[in-house]
Amino acid sequence: MSHESSLVRDLLDELVSLVNSGQSFSDIHLEQDMPMMIKTPRGWCQSGAEPVTLDDMAPVLGAIDNDWKARISERAIDRPLALPGYRLRCNVYRSCGGARVTVAIRCQPAQPMPLAQTGLPQYARTMLEATRGIIMVTGPTRSGKTTTIASMLDHINATRSAHIVTIEEPIEYQLQRKLSIISQKEVPTDTATFSSGLREALRQDPDVLMVGEIRDFDTADTVLYAGDAGHLVLATMHASSAVGALTRLLDYFPAGQRDLRAAGLARSLVGVIFQSLVPSERGDALVLAHEILFNHNQQLARLIADPGKVHQIEGVLRHREDAMSRSLNDVLAQLVAQKTVSARDAMRAAYNRLELHDMLGRIR
Fold this sequence. Notes:
This protein is an alpha/beta fold. The chain is built from 14 helices and 13 strands. It folds into two domains: 2-109, Beta-Lactamase (2-Layer Sandwich), CATH 3.30.450.90; 115-326, Rossmann fold (3-Layer(aba) Sandwich), CATH 3.40.50. The N and C termini lie far apart (66 Å).
């Protein structure tokens, strides 16, 4: 019996060693009776040759939820797991008709990354000097939106005496009070929905509001109201470009309300950051490629206020009419010219591939 026990791996210790190994990866996949997998900048690869047994997984499952056996019979378990220096977002579920237990793990540092290390240009912090209005961070799934938002909030926390209220699902980074008061609310534990949490927060003396995701009419409506009412609102949204984020936000409203909402957005929008993570040329890291729209001086307000002209903002980016706003293709072309990313990976990240192809041809 003692011999069998000695064969059980200390998987929790392996996870600690793995996240502190310095390897570049974002996710870990533990599947019963299969080898551990990690997601690197170039995709999934095996970490270790030995399959992970259910006995191996038991201490990890217990650390995630000590009642995991009962809970997993009803539904998937979504819980954080704190490790030294890291916070793992774990989703435990059954597969193969209940025959296998699997854990999908998202890895991130326990503390937000300094804003200067995110890959955004230094002047992006100009947006955070605003005391009211809306800052949107957008991009596809797994593009680092949460990391960017956390870095921005931590910058405000370190430089301003404010009350920061966040509404998240789940809470990703536990922010520690510096100069600001921090109130983090989790959906559905602390508030029922993003929209209800945001409405409640408006009555809690906030200076800065963060909404984990705009995904419905009610949230979009409250975000516009809060930004126009004197609060600084940071929000994320899934979109395919910075201009696409504006269009998608306005699309939440009925056609009859869109002109009025567009006028409100034009008044309150501080800026939009669209971002994508691209493998480095060596394949050992992820590089942030960004697109930024600035409206902090109302320079784009006339185009935003007319839903029929929002698409013209793409021309402003293309012709660099604003010294601070930049298109994604400009940034991707620069990264290729610097040999930071490959042309092939840049093309995969672009939403206007024909334009980028022409730009890269001129670089060569």
